[in-house]
DNA sequence: CGCAGTTTTGAGACTGATCAATGCCTGTGG
DNA sequence: CCACAGGCATTGATCAGTCTCAAAACTGCG
């Protein structure tokens, strides 16, 4: 496990915001020079973490905000006896850690699902952002509303969909998000989570999740040999999921 | 069903922000004169709606943001076949409708649970707020983060808690929220939702919800003769819920 | 008084949980 | 190059929590 402290990355040179690999991506809105310069001063460093590393724990007073440059993370909550609910997955360009900068304490934990590179922002500067870059403040709210949107969807899934609908809708969502980032090869994507982790996101047991995946496979909708996921029938999958195939809006990121 | 259009309330005089009944409440942070004046210009009217009225529907392009002055609402999503998941309840001081002002379209519906009075803000002015009142922009983000916090909790509840834990934790949360608003009489509060609505928030059937409430009652933890809820054993209820009794932070509102 | 919506109760069915193995792949060290 | 360990995936059998269906009792209201 490597957890490089913010501000000092070991071998790798830090990426300048100007040259941020995410900038060119069509999924994200364009930035002005001025905004870029500010974001650069806002950024305090990078965090490189191996898969499995805990970025922060519930109850922590994390002093940072993070944008994912590469890799996946997941947010989760635990009950005392160890039951775990994964709240959402974070992909490149996604933002997390807002709560601590608002309330001073996180209500959930975050773990690196794959090796990740995170862009780190100190929370003391958040206020500065609102004061001098209202458009970026607006973007922050936008991103918070987007997270809420995804949570609403997850809550519907976990609360009201059957097992097969749940698996179908989460795989579908994840596929669409990867596709939006331009990281899909046709209907083929890399989905790095284990069945156990998927189960924890769905509110199901891992055994039943496995059996449900098999069913989707035997119905010729998907083919998943972790981490390679092939969506063989997108419309069919959406039908089983009881979901619509809306396209995702272009979005900001910090 | 009465749905008074924003900007024209029939008999009632509109409430000036300066005299907003919520202002004095300890649950909320104090505002400066300048902020109050702006919020007053931001406000475009009031919406008075009877219990059961739909404020807006999923897919709508709602042009407004709302703060609840009095009464309860709930946010929900539907599946095609009518299964309903209630995402969260809104109480006085709570804010909703942010998504439409960010993405132009709501992903969920909102219904008045009781008769409500809502304070209406036009979404065109949201940008103005960020530009000229950064502290209010910050507050908006704060409120979005708070909603996220509540959704995280709900997702954990629905995904990983058992029926009895679910009922206990939602009743507990609702009690604490009412208490924070100073609307509790000791351990007694008015909880206006039906068992069916509670069930839809919990991801349970209404029959099983009823049986579970009975169990909590027979264990002498609560006493609920709708709408009168009496929490007979707060600590015991928290224990059953597998939840902690943290106090809620003072919060902003618009 | 009667209606409509809500709560309550019982019985049986079923989805998904739990338990317990087994198989499989990958990386590691001998 | 093989043996082994550890993590994951897979499978079968049994169990139980929750759902569905159906009907009755209750409550507030016109």
Automatic annotation (TrEMBL), chains A, B:
Pfam families: cNMP_binding, HTH_Crp_2. It comes from the Bacteria. One of its GO terms (molecular function) is DNA-binding transcription factor activity. Keywords: DNA-binding, Kinase, Transcription, Transcription regulation, Transferase. One of its GO terms (cellular component) is cytosol. Residues 27-97 form the Cyclic nucleotide-binding domain. The keyword Transcription applies. Coiled coil: none annotated. Residues 161-235 form the HTH crp-type domain. This is cAMP-binding proteins-catabolite gene activator and regulatory subunit of cAMP-dependent protein kinases. It comes from Methyloceanibacter caenitepidi.
